[in-house]
Structure formats: C-alpha cells, structure tokens
Amino acid sequence: MSKPLQPVIVGAGPAGIRAAERVVRAGLRPIVLDEGQRAGGQIYRRPLIEDGRSYRSRYGSEAGKAQRLHQAFEALLPDIDYRPETLVWNISAPERGNQLDILSSGVHRQIGFSQLILCTGATDRVLPFPGWTTPGVYTLGASQTALKAQGCTIGDRVVFMGSGPLLYLVAWQYMKAGARVEAVLDTAPVTSKRYLLSLAAHAPRIVALGLFYGLQLQLAGVKIRYGVRPEAVLGTSQVEGLRYRRRTLTGEAVESIACDALAYGFALRPETQLADLAGCRFRFDARDRVWLPERDALGRTSRSDVYVAGDGSGIAGADAAEISGELAAAALLEDTGRALADAAGLVAAREAILRQRDILEQAFPFPDDWFETVPDETTLCRCEEITIAEGRRAIASGSITEINRLKALSRVGMGRCQGRMCSAAATELLSGACATSAGEVGRLRAQAPVKPIPLGFGGRVEAEVRS
Amino acid sequence: MSRRISVDVAIIGGGLVGSSAALAMRKAGLSVVLLDKGYCGAQASGVNYGGVRRQGRSPEQLPLSQRAHRLWPQLKAMIGIDAEYVRSGHLKLARTEKDFAKLEAYAEAVRDYGLGLELVAGSALADRFPWLSAKAVGASLCPDDGHANPRLVAPAFARAAERAGVTVLEQTPVREVTATGNGFAILAGDGIEIRCRQLVNSAGAWSDRFAAQFGEAVPLTRIYPSMVVTEPLPLRLPVSMGEQGGSFYGRQVARGNYVMGGGRGLPLTNADYSRPSVTAASSVMQRAIALFPHLADAQVIRFWSGTEAEMPDGNPVIGPSETTSGLFHAFGFCGAGFQTAPAVGEVLSELVTDGRTTTPIQAFSIGRFRKVAVETAASL
Ligand SMILES: Cc1cc2nc3c(=O)[nH]c(=O)nc-3n(C[C@H](O)[C@H](O)[C@H](O)COP(=O)(O)OP(=O)(O)OC[C@H]3O[C@@H](n4cnc5c(N)ncnc54)[C@H](O)[C@@H]3O)c2cc1C
Ligand SMILES: Cc1cc2nc3c(=O)[nH]c(=O)nc-3n(C[C@H](O)[C@H](O)[C@H](O)COP(=O)(O)OP(=O)(O)OC[C@H]3O[C@@H](n4cnc5c(N)ncnc54)[C@H](O)[C@@H]3O)c2cc1C
Fold first, then answer.
1. What does the DSSP assignment read for B53-103?
2. Which ligand has the nearest atom to the CA of B229?
3. What is the rounded distance in angstroms from the CA atom of residue B71 to the CA atom of residue B85?
4. Ligand 2 atom closest to Cα of B13?
5. Which of A310, B157, B276, B306 is the most buried (most CB within 10 A)?
6. How far apart are CA B302 and CA B283, in angstroms?
7. Whole-angstrom Cα distance, residue A356 to residue A354?
8. Contact B269 A95 (CB under 8 A)
9. pLDDT at residue A172 tops 50
10. SS3 category, B344
C-alpha cells in the first residue's frame, strides 16, 4: 500500500508560492514552511505591521506582481498547511528516511515528506572591505528589508556601493522614501554598461527601468561613480563616510564622501545548504562563481524526490523564480503519476530570463581583482574575527588548496553563519592565491543546523505523523 | 605520472598517530614517507572533542597515557604551536551513589599511576566548584588533565615531520601493499611506487583492511561520536567535564564556544562518512542545560561527527605484526586516542629502531584477537 503523498515546500517566496499553487491545483495539500513571519519572500517582502503605505509606494514598478502574488497566497491558505516562522534546520541523510527537522515557536519537530521542493532563495553576496564591520554599514538587501518590512531607512544620508542591478533600484527606493542618497558607487567600470544596449533588444522593460532609476537619481543630484574600489570606512563607532579610489579617464582618483549609513552588496548568493544536506549532487556555476545543486530544466535534482526552484537553485530573479516554482511542482506531479501539463512554454520563458541574466552579469561584473587588492587588516570572517591577513597566512603556511581545509586550519566559516556570509570571500581569496577558478577549491560542506538554534529548544522531539 | 620512492619506513595514515610516529622516526635518523588518502589530520585526529584526559582510562593504558602526559606540555618545542593545550583539570561527575562508587573504585584501582585524583562528595562539591549547578552526588577531579584544539595538533605534527625531512604525501591513498621478503612494496596515489624496509599501519578506522591483508583479521567496528558546539560565550567553565557513564562531556574553548559531545552519529551508506545524530545532539543539549542553566538561551551553531575505530575490549592495537616481520600496527583507539597519540608515535619509533619499547604494550598485541578467535572455534 502506498503512503499518501506529503509534499513539503520550503520557502514562501515567489518560487514557493507558485509551487504550492500548482500542487494544490492537482488536489494535493502541501506543507509550506517558511522562516519569515509573512509570505512573499525577499522581493515581495511584506510589512510586519501595516503602516498604511500602498503597494505602489512599497514595491514601485513591481506593485502589480507583488499584489498578485500575495493574493494568490491568501487564496491558497485554506488548502495548504502553512507554517510561518518555521526554520528548517536539518534534513536527514537520504539513507535515513525523508525527514526534516524544524523549529517553530521554540519547539523542535520532525516531519516526514514524500517529496520536497526547496525554494530557499538567496541572500546578499558579501565581499569584505576595510571598515565593513563599522556600525552603520549594511548589506544592500538588508537596507531594502528595513524599508519594506520595517518601514524605516538605515540612515538619513546614505551611500550605496557595490555591483548588481539592485544597487540602483534600492538607491532609488531610498530616495523615494525620503532619505538623502549621497552617492551610488558602482564597482563596475562605466564601459561594462555597454552590455545594457544588447540587453535592450531582449528585455526593454528592464533596461528602461534601470535607465529611469539612474536618470532620476542623477536629476536629484545623486553622485554616480564607476570603477570604484572602497579604501576605508571613515568613523570608528559609526560610519561617517567612505574613502574610495576610482578609475578615471586619466588614471585614478581618491575621493571621500560623507554619510551616516552605507549599504553595499555584490549581487546575490543562493541558499543551498538544505539541498546539500539532502544529498543532492552539486555542480560549479562559473558565471555566478558558486556551487549549485544539479537540476534539469524543470528543477529535478539528482535525488528523485527532491526538487529545487527559485534563486536557491541559481540566481535568476523573481520572475524566473515564479516560473521555476511552477515547473518544479509540475515535475513533481508528473513523477508521481499525474499528467504533466505542457511545460515547454514555461521552460522557454525561464530560459529567456536566464539569457538576460548572462548579459546583466556582464553589465554588473564581479570585482575579480578583489582578492589581491583587499588589505590585510580587513576582517574576512566576522563571526570568528579572522582577518584577510590570517586567511592569507593560513593558505600559504598550510599550502591549502581546498576550502574545507582552509576552514579547518583558519576557522573561516566556523562561526554563527557557518560560512553563509564569508564563504564567497574565502573562496575568492583561496582560488586567487592558488591562481585557479573558484570551482577548483571545492565547496564548504553544509552541517546542521543550517542556522543557529537555541540550545534550550525544548529538547522534546515531536515526530509528526500525518493521519 | 609515476614516481619511485625508497625509504626506511612507510606510514599509512597521517592522523595524529601516523604523524607523530613520522616525526619521532625522522628524529631517530630514519628516512620516512607518510601517506594519507586525504589530508593529514582531517579524520578522527582533527575532528575529535579535544579531551586530553587520562582519568577513566583502563589501567593497562595508563603507562602509555602517562608518557603522553609528559609530552603534551612540550608541543611548542616539538611542533611549533601549543595548540591551545591547557591543563584545566578534568572533572568527572557522578549522578547517583552507584556511579560515585564506581569513581571511588576507579581511583583505588589506579592509585599507583600518579593521576592525583581527588574525590569530592556532598556539600563539598558546591564549595569546591561554585559554578556547577548540576545535581550530582559527587565527582572525581584529575587536576592535570585538560584539553587542546584537535584541528591544529595533527596537521602541525605532519608539518613538523615534513620540516624535519619526512616525505609527506597527502591526497595519496595506499592502494596495494605486498611483502617482498625483505620489506614492502606499496602502490599509492596515481602511480607512486614505494619500497621500504618497515611499514606502519596507522590508518585509523580503515586499518583493519591492511591488517586482514597480512592474515590478521581484527574485530574492528567504526564509531561516530556525535558533537555539538555553541556560539562563543563568556568564559565560565574552567574544567573539561565528563560524566560517569560517558553520556555527556563538555569543555569551553579559549574562544568561548562550548564544545560538547555524547552519543553516536549515524553512518551513511558509504560508512566512511557519517552524520551527527539529532537524537544524540538533542540529549546532549538537554543535558547541557541541566548542568549549566545559563546556557538555555545560547545558540548552537554546528553539529559534527567523525569516524573512529573501536575494538571489543576497549583497548587499541599497538605493536608488531605476528605474521609479517617489519610490519607494525597502531589503531583502534576507541574514541580516546587523541591524548595518547604523541606517545604512540614515540613507541612506534622505538619498535622500528630497536624492536622493543620502554612502555608496556603487551595488552595491545594484535594476537589477542587471534586467541579469541581460536577459543571461540574450539568451544563450538
Ligand atoms: C534582501 C534581498 C532583497 C531583494 N530585493 C529584490 C528586489 O527588490 N527586486 C528584485 O528583482 N529582486 C530582489 N531580490 C532578489 C529576489 O530574492 C529574488 O529574485 C526572488 O525573491 C526569488 O524568489 P525565491 O522564491 O527564489 O526566494 P525568496 O524570495 O528569497 O524566498 C525564499 C524564502 O525561503 C525562506 N527560507 C530560506 N531558507 C529557509 C529555511 N532553512 N527554513 C525555512 N524557510 C527558509 C526564506 O525565509 C524566504 O521567505 C532580493 C534579494 C534579497 C536577498
Ligand atoms: C568525534 C570524535 C571525538 C573524539 N574525542 C576524543 C577525545 O576527546 N579524546 C581522545 O583522546 N580521543 C577522542 N577521539 C578519538 C581520537 O580522535 C582518535 O582515537 C585518534 O584521533 C585516532 O588517531 P589515528 O591517527 O589513529 O586516526 P585518524 O586521525 O583517523 O587517522 C587515520 C588516517 O589514515 C588515513 N587513511 C586511511 N586509509 C588510508 C589509505 N588507504 N591510504 C592512505 N591513508 C589512509 C585517513 O585518511 C586518516 O587521515 C574522538 C574521536 C572522534 C571521531
């Protein structure tokens, strides 16, 4: 006798919501687990307390999509087992059965799944620079989260620095919210923006929006600089400004800018620990310089009962996340004997977005000289308080060529974040020192718990059996 | 790619045992190659709890353990780092009268070995250890036991051996070993051929394979101790703690993290690998709070486990092969080989150079399992 299907979806962002919708349409009742207090994920993050702001003011050009997604989710509620504020912190090894360890309201539970769709999204990719641990320095995503979820800004006079499309978007959102944006400091050279021309043919809306943000910022007197390399955060107990170097036509210039908050980011990095614990095979993605779970066009992994979708399966943005959520659910349904409605259109749409992403990456390139230019005294791993110099010394003295070995010998990635924040930098430092690609140095093995859990979580393990 | 190496001694396994043996043998003037299938110190020796503890060991192990005890404070001179070694004291708690009686009996049994055990019971417990909030009947303190950082020790032994002139080959699995009559021929890695007069089998939980190959099958099983570590917290726990019965042990490292263990992890399909078990980790976490209520709000940041060899009588195998001259075994440390390993290295070096050692190791002979096998066969 076969057991009833109990599909579990982790993550209630665009990918998870669309996956749930498709599964429900097929007559199943999925469990949807999300760490956040409200569904919506990163881009369509909702306020914790309604503050009277309209969709338009909160989500700008994406207001329509946000509203549609939120409404779709509300409509699903009677048909799903939705558990917000629920952290999935472990997945049993494949040979030990299909079990998730979850923590909600301080209680630890184990729940079984017949299939699992991981829609765990992404976080900012962090590259350290001198002074990045000074109070008042935020990641780009965090500065946006403050705005969307808490309805506040990180400061009154804010500088935005880094690379990636979010840079201009968030700066613009801050300006609209009434903060004074002092500057947008783009680490990419201005010449890389020429790729936007070729993008215009494929995705005119994205390019138009980008130009619009840039133009409005400039009209408002916001300083925009290209080819920037941060040199030092000014101020010790609080950000007072940033000193940076930038490429000019004639050479290099060193400039300083005053501010009371600094937001920075270098695109995003996917959350893949759960896929790793589930035993999915990984492959290296050269464009995003990161290891990703292997997936087919629909989101099937190397494990027959685990699917991945959204940014957690490869950064592709919210629209692609919605599509891939639906695709992963479709694959699950097909694999469990239900008919696969024609997915070709969705696959094609997602692939078109992936091609646009390739161009966007060229327009917002990764600063690949980072590993050689970052000064020794910069903090590399803030959990474990390890400097770049210590990282470099460990690599040299231990002839290290593998990232887990670097972790063992230097403690990088051994702290609270378990490498979620510092591994991008540690990987670049190591592969740079070895003069190989980031893929050559391997990937940090995930360990439970994927995020810190309280020692006194109640201890009692409540196994859930579905009636 | 092929390479030929000819040395006096080849050592299979660059854990703490193999690495310290390599260093000691090199210092004794031998030419040595040290081989590891992964990285030196990346298995049990690099991922263990870090207890440098004599208390609780079987009396047969104490001479070896005492020898190691004299070596630990000399790490800096031997390998260039002190590896966070501290003689914090090792406090073993008894939850019941019965357990306390066991601690008393143990203290009596090992009186002559010089561990300096101090038994504390009743209200004296709280006077002596005011930070201890657990309900315990009594405890036994070994003041000079302590702990160290395993991540650092074994790799540093291997590096020191390399600096002293040992050829260290990492990422080089030993694939084949054959006795040639006056030594051994080894095939390792991608086409590396090694000739040596003497061979040390210190391949940890993988040693049984090499022993069996020379007609010395051993009842080795693999164990996977399960560990839990918290975020760094203010320093408060001054000793390394254990419990009679072993269901909980814990220490606070220099950085402030509580490193705690108890119970077993679970092997995966490929038994070389394991996962910490959530059941074991949860019970350690509960026990930790019972002992230290101030930890209730602390965060656990990681679980881990490692692979170690266990023998049925709880003692390791150390000594010459009984079938093959020039072959020496050193494995099966039963979750407790970290402390003794530096001495095991010296013992192996003595065996290889002189054919005998100043430390009694009769109890660890590999032949004890042959006898067991023969007796069982006879009684059938
Ligand atoms: C801070 C931030 C801001 C962004 N802002 C924008 C923007 O303005 N515009 C834009 O185009 N793109 C933005 N992005 C990119 C955006 O994340 C994606 O395009 C889109 O949200 C991806 O959807 P998703 O469903 O894959 O993941 P997400 O929206 O990230 O949703 C993932 C969900 O999974 C949950 N989750 C993850 N791990 C666990 C776990 N272990 N247990 C339980 N739940 C878990 C998370 O809480 C989250 O709700 C942003 C990204 C970040 C990180
Ligand atoms: C989680 C845990 C906690 C522990 N806690 C403590 C403690 O607190 N105190 C204590 O004293 N002990 C403790 N122990 C036990 C202790 O770690 C071991 O007894 C000790 O490290 C054994 O050392 P070793 O050199 O024999 O083995 P290992 O360190 O395992 O080394 C064996 C080496 O052999 C290599 N190898 C295997 N096969 C081959 C091959 N074919 N070719 C080449 N190389 C090969 C392996 O890669 C490995 O590096 C613990 C063990 C674990 C796992």
1. --TT--GGGHHHHHHHHHHGGGHHHHHS--TT-B---EEEEESSHHHHHHH
2. 2
3. 11
4. 34
5. A310
6. 15
7. 5
8. yes
9. yes
10. helix
What confidence tier does B370 reach under pLDDT thresholds 50, 70, 90?
Answer: confident
Q: Are strands B3-12 and B192-201 parallel, antiparallel or unpaired?
A: parallel
Phi and psi for A215 in degrees, rounded to 5?
-65, -50
Q: Are A156 and A136 in contact (CB under 8 A)?
A: no
Reduced to 3 states (helix: H, G, I; strand: E, B; else coil), residue A93 is coil
- In this structure, what are the phi and psi dihedrals at residue A108, rounded to the nearest 5 degrees? -95, 130
Identify whether the C-beta of residue B260 lies closer than 8 Å to the C-beta of residue B282: no
Return the H-helix or E-strand segment holding A18: helix A14-25
Distance (Å, whole) CA B204 – CA B211: 12
Give SS3 for B126.
helix
B117 interfacial to chain A (CB closer than 8 Å): no
Q: For ligand 2, what atom is nearest to the CA of residue B36?
A: 44
The helix or strand, by DSSP H or E, that contains position B22, with its residue range, turns out to be: helix B16-27
Q: Which residues, in sequence order, are bridge partners of residue A225?
A: A185
DSSP A300: B
Q: How far is B126 from chain A (nearest CA, A)?
A: 24
- Each residue's pLDDT tens digit, A378-393: 999 999 999 999 999 9
Kindly report the nearest CA distance between residue B282 and chain A, in angstroms. 6
- Which H, E and C letters describe A400-445, residue by residue? CCCHHHHHHHHCCCCCCCCCCCCHHHHHHHHHHHHCCCHHHHCCCC
Q: Please, which pLDDT band fits residue B1 given cuts at 50, 70 and 90? A: low
Chain B interface, mutation test: which of A455, A460, A461, most B Cβ atoms within 10 Å? A455
pLDDT at A1: 42
Of the CA atoms within 13 Å of residue B220, those in its CB half-sphere come to 27
pLDDT exceeds 80 at position B377 = no
pTM over 0.90? The answer is yes
Q: Which ligand is nearest to the CA of A138?
A: 1
Whether A124 shows a pLDDT value over 60: the answer reads: yes
Q: Is the dihedral of CA B33, B34, B36, B39 positive or negative?
A: negative
Residue type (1 letter), A434: C
Across the interface, do B275 and A96 touch by the CB < 8 Å criterion? Answer: yes
Q: Which residues of B283-322 are buried (b: 16+ CB within 10 A; e: fewer)?
A: bbbbbbbebbeebeebbbbbbbbbbbbbbebebbbbbbbe
Among A415, A452, A459, beta carbon nearest to B285: A459
Q: What is the overall mean pLDDT for chain A?
A: 93
Q: Can you tell me the distance from the alpha carbon of B355 to that of B363, in angstroms, rounded to the nearest whole number?
A: 17
Say if residue A356's pLDDT is above 70: yes
Instruction: Report whether A246 contacts A227 (CB < 8 A).
Output: yes
DSSP assignment of A318-374, as one string? Answer: HHHHHHHHHHHHHHHHHHTT------HHHHHHHHHHHHHHHHHHHHS---TTHHHHS
Those residues whose C-beta lies under 8 Å from the C-beta of residue B161, and which sit 6 or more positions away, are B19, B22, B23, B26, B32, B34, B168
Average of per-residue pLDDT across B349-359: 97
Amino acid identity, position B74:
Q
**What is the b/e burial string over B111-129, where b = at least 16 CB atoms within 10 angstroms of the residue's CB?**
eebebebebbbeeebeeeb
Closest Cβ opposite residue B300 in set A384, A398, A449: A449
Q: What value does the mean pLDDT take over residues B41-50?
A: 97
Look at strands A268-270 and B308-310 and give their pairing: unpaired
Which pLDDT does position A463 carry in this prediction? 63
Q: For residues B64 and B359, is the Cβ–Cβ distance under 8 A?
A: yes
Rounded CA gap, A333 and A339, in Å?
A: 7
Opening angle at CA A117, ends A116 and A120, nearest 5: 125
Helix (H, G, I), strand (E, B), or coil: what is residue B52? Answer: strand
Q: Whose CA is nearest to atom 53 of ligand 2?
A: B306
